[in-house]
Amino acid sequence: MSKNLEGKVAVVTGASRGLGRAMAVAFAKAGAKVALVGRDTGKLAETAALCAAAGSEGVAFSADVTSEADVAKVEKDVIAKFGRVDILVNNAGINIRKNVDEFTLDEWNSVIGANLPSAFLLCRAFVPHMKGKGWGRILNMTSIMSHVSLGGRAAYSSSKAGLLGFTKALAMELAPEGICVVGISPGPFATEMNIPLMNNAELNKQFLQKIPMGKWGQPEDIGTLAAYLCSDAAGFITGTDILIDGGWTAQ
Ligand SMILES: NC(=O)c1ccc[n+]([C@@H]2O[C@H](COP(=O)([O-])OP(=O)(O)OC[C@H]3O[C@@H](n4cnc5c(N)ncnc54)[C@H](OP(=O)(O)O)[C@@H]3O)[C@@H](O)[C@H]2O)c1
């Protein structure tokens, strides 16, 4: 991969593992410095080491993205460290798989809170640092569940469909600034979030049957896509959503 993000600073939430870690490493490979946001400081340190091995700097910033105070501190600390932000990836997210009549309000609010208002808080914090430069990239981790759904996904689908709407609205606000806002909608990927499905032989089989390509996605594929969407070559892509799902939504 070329060093086409040299000189850029990227903030990636949920960088302690899974898709966020893969995107952080892909950005580091492309030459960007990366602010790694999450709660698990040990895992963030591991991602920082992977960024260093990929040839650039990754720095951990511990924060709960649902907390307005934590996000305000991350903004202050990232700007103090790097002086700028060019790329923001709203990737942190959670899922609770339950039927609607089994959800407590706290569980419902925790899914919505981690997946939707978090993106608003991060954008409100960092968009002012992107404006006025004529270039910026915001990626929101939506989902195939923004487009289609399954039983037991009401809170998750609601949050991810909301994030898709947020992506389009923010793209309209920021297009005149040269800031592209794009959703990435993964299908099922082999990450910790899906361990309960992958470790259940029957559910694993059901999922593999529903994926036309017959395999779970690999996080590195998301890293490659994210690095492309943040390159100059993708500067006319905004207000849309890229499905990367092995064919799931084409059926
Ligand atoms: N894997 C898939 O198949 C798939 C499919 C579609 C969409 N997605 C979306 O892609 C994103 C990443 O998924 P993943 O599979 O990589 O999940 P994962 O392995 O469970 O990782 C989730 C990440 O989000 C962070 N996070 C969660 N709540 C947070 C909070 N309140 N504050 C700060 N960080 C928080 C976690 O960090 P800490 O624990 O360190 O806080 C972790 O780094 C999510 O938004 C998910 O909904 C995933």
Describe what this molecule looks like in 3D.
This protein has 251 residues and is α/β, with parallel strands linked by helices. The chain has one domain (9-243): Rossmann fold (3-Layer(aba) Sandwich). The protein is 45% helix and 16% strand. It is built from 9 helices and 7 strands. It has helices spanning 18-29, 41-54, 68-82, 105-115, 117-130, 154-174, 195-198, 201-210, 219-229, and strands at 9-13, 33-38, 58-62, 87-90, 136-141, 179-186, 240-244. α6 (154-174) links the parallel β5 and β6. α1 (18-29) packs parallel to α2 (41-54) and α3 (68-82) runs parallel beside α5 (117-130). The chain starts with 8 loop residues before the first strand and ends in a 7-residue tail after the last strand. The model has no long low-confidence stretch (mean pLDDT 98). NADP nicotinamide-adenine-dinucleotide phosphate (NAP) is lined by residues 13-14, 16-20, 38-40, 43, 64-66, 91-94, 114, 141, 143, 186, 188-189, 191-194.
Given helix and strand content, the structural type is alpha/beta
Spatial separation of the terminal alpha carbons = 33 Å
- CATH class, named Alpha Beta
Overall 3D form? globular
- Beta-strand content: 15-25%
Q: Tell me how many strands there are.
A: 7
CATH architecture: 3-Layer(aba) Sandwich
Helical stretch count?
Answer: 9
CATH topology label: Rossmann fold
Order of helices and strands: EHEHEHEHHEHEHHHE
User: Biggest β-sheet, characterized?
Assistant: 7 strands, parallel
